[in-house]
Amino acid sequence: MIEAKDLSLTFTTADGPVYALSGVDLTVGEGDFISFIGPSGCGKTTLLRIIADLEQPTGGAIHVNGMTPSDARMARQYGYVFQAPALYPWRTVERNVMLPLEIMGYSAAERRERAHRNLELVNLKGFERKYPWQLSGGMQQRASIARALSFDPKLLLMDEPFGALDEIVRDSLNLQLLRLWRETQKTVVFVTHSIPEAVFLSTRIVVMSPRPGRIIDVIDCDLPKDRDLSIRESKRFLDIAHRVREGLRAGHSYDE
Amino acid sequence: MMSEAAPASTLKAPAARSGEGQTVPVLTIVGCLILIWYAAAIWLNMPFQLQLNPELAGMDLVYATWAAERPVLPSPHQVLAEIWKTTALVDITSKRSLFYHAWVTISSSLLGFAMGTLVGVLLAAAIVHVRALQKSLLPWIIASQTIPILAIAPIIIVVLGSIGITGIFPKALISAYLCFFPIAISMVKGLTSPDLMQLDLMRTYNASQFETFAKLRWPASVPFLFAGFKVAIAISLVGAIVGEMPTGAQAGLGARLLAGSYYGQTVQIWAALFMASGLAAFLVMAVAFAERVTLKRMGVKP
Q: Quick check: B204 and A84 CB within 8 A?
């Protein structure tokens, strides 16, 4: 689904070059749930933005679904979920979900049907006519996930979508996301800085480290697909979490 | 922000209370102003009244200053009487009716407002979409407003008059010249108000520039547009009144002001001034009302 070879991105600033990413090799298979984890400044968001063609690499090669990120974006191959819900405040929840469908030229009936279906998928049935400010933060982020899913892309890119939410809400959203991933068979690339979240959700965890942004370790997370929150107390879960923590330490990520 | 909508009643209550609390202070201020006005009328009109009749003294003198034929400063009740006489007591189509003159002024000011809005929005859209224009156009827009309108108004009237364009259009053009500025400035701000995430979102959909404009930049700029409207509507009136002066125009509040000063009719001047400010207040309130309705329809948090 995604293949990156020796990918690098250097920003030129007044204080000299900043190596946001360097020598990144990555393969994401279809149906994978991949998490990028690392401290701030490790380039995890930058890597996601390169996949989304929101940022241009300065070196190396990357293919998304067999094409360049730019072609993939133009072919509307992925849905992107930002750190904040980024809902348009003048649109109702339903019309926010319809926004990409309007741009992509779906018929009015199809727009309604898809908005309805995807809002149901994220448990927001009955909130179609509400405005974003009438929803809680967790509900807003769910609406933004429904919006990303509305045009049925195979790839879902998520940039710390639950970072601003409290832990209780986050737990429940993690469960819902996992169910959603199983039901829709999407490929998900998920950026986070929470170790338990990464281990709980992922099939593979990419551990990253800053200066220059690079991949330290790729950890297979072979917990059963059908997980619930209690799995977080299991030995296997704790072992993987430990390995992630070791990886982060090896990258001197705890120095800051 | 995170909780469900609070019932409307609890949101509205404080606003209603503060509304009640405003009445008394506002009336007090108005009362004070009227008292000061009467006192100033005595002071300013006294010398001339004493010239006319040196015998006058005491309350007789005071009453004389408040009832002078051509006072330096007419008293409030003289102005009110003049307004009453020229609105309620004459036919609305008569050339002596203030409503007729107000209508002449308001029609050119509204046409100017519409033209100014169109130009302002188009300029802002161009500036936002073409980076080069921001550097090249914006200084000219700002410079245009440093030219005194009193200097440029006669030029516009005379030049357009010489090629046969007279009537409402030259006056509207002067209004538009003043109006487009606040609209352009607030719309540049409004059209650039969407944050990076909202813009990136459009990019992930591979939305065209036009779609990004229509579905993101334009709706996001509506509150800014209304802020610009409020300034523009008031100065569009100023532009129309100024535009009526150099022609020695036959009609309009500006012509009324000019005629009043030619013939020393201070009461008439003040009556026209009051009509103009009443008109401005009405127009600003109309914009505020339109703003409330529009923003409510756009689901803005009350």
A: no
Complex prediction ipTM: 0.90
B157 in the same domain as B55: no
Closest approach of B145 to chain A, Cα-based (Å)? 34
Phi first, then psi: give them for residue B80, nearest 5 degrees. -60, -40
Residues from chain B that touch A77, judged by Cβ atoms under 8 A, are: none
CA angle, residues B213, B116, B140, in degrees to nearest 5: 85
Q: What are phi and psi of A173, to 5 degrees?
A: -70, -35
Q: How far is A135 from chain B (nearest CA, A)?
A: 6
The tens digit of pLDDT for each residue in B52-81 reads 888 888 888 888 888 888 888 999 999 999
Residue whose structure tokens are 């930002």: A82
**Residue B224 parent element (H or E):** helix B218-244
What residue ranges define each of the domains in chain A, with the CATH number in brackets? 2-77+154-250 (3.40.50.300), 88-152 (no CATH)
Cβ within 8 Å, pair B299-A74: no
B211 in contact with A, Cβ within 8 Å = yes
pLDDT tens per residue, range B218-260: 999 999 999 999 999 999 999 999 888 876 567 888 888 888 8
